[in-house]
Amino acid sequence: MSVDTAALTRALKGDSKQQGNWGEVVLSRVLSESGLREGHEYSTQLSLNNAEGKRYQPDVVVHLPQDKDIIIDAKVSLTAYERYFNGEDAAVREQALRDHVASVRGHIRELGRKDYQQLQGVRTLDYVLMFVAVEPAFLVAVEAEPGLVKYALDHNILLVSPTNLLVALRTIENLWRVERQNQNARKIAESAGKIYEKLRLFTEDMEAMGQSLQRADDNYQRAMKKLSSGRGNLIRQAEAFRELGVEVTKPLPEHLREAASEDGEQVQLGQRA
């Protein structure tokens, strides 16, 4: 905490560049605590052109489901706020507060002129989030000049502090979680449909195979009937030649000869008696 406090103190008393860097650090911390992932649900330091070809580099582009984006730009107004915060004279504090409000208003005008909504390569909503990194500085400005909120809205800007930005980003993270669940549900449904179709084709193939096997068995039974089971079958006739004295090297299998006998129809076809 002491390190953070020292850094904030240097930023409060530093130049605009130091204050801007401090604002980006705070914004980065808020993003890291939101659950969103850089390179996935948000991108930083993108270089984008407007319709005239002028290049801009918004601090953060947060991606939403349904191919929408929100641009966040950190604007730090700390110099006048530091005078207000540390001032001991009431008149000095009052003037510093007016300067602080004027500084915030100037940042709103500056950001509004950039017209980030028209940048090419982003599908942004109709407004930009202007991030004020120091919560008390944000609150004291809005409290002193409530019209700042409407003034910002008139420039298509929403003023946000670390607290309400974190709430908004966690809401977006929840939307992404729901979107991923919906995507998974769609993938499951697609996979289930493919499995069902494969099962249908498999059952058709099995039925066709069964029919083919049945036909093969029918053909087998007819062939065996001609060979050994029907009256006048080939084996019975061949055995008659052997009984008449025709010499053979080796007799036919005994179970076929038995099946081919006059009462062979009682024997299981193709099996030994």
UniProtKB/TrEMBL annotation:
Protein name from the UniProt record: DNA recombination protein RmuC
Which Gene Ontology terms describe the biological processes this protein takes part in? Answer: DNA recombination
Organism listed in the record: Oceanisphaera psychrotolerans
Q: Is Coiled coil one of the keywords UniProt gives this record?
A: yes
| Signal sequence annotation | none
- Name one matching Pfam family: RmuC
Q: Which InterPro entries match?
A: DNA_recombination_RmuC
Query: Which keywords appear in this protein's UniProt record, sorted alphabetically?
Result: Coiled coil, DNA recombination
Q: Which family does it belong to?
A: Belongs to the RmuC family.
Q: What does this protein do?
A: Involved in DNA recombination.
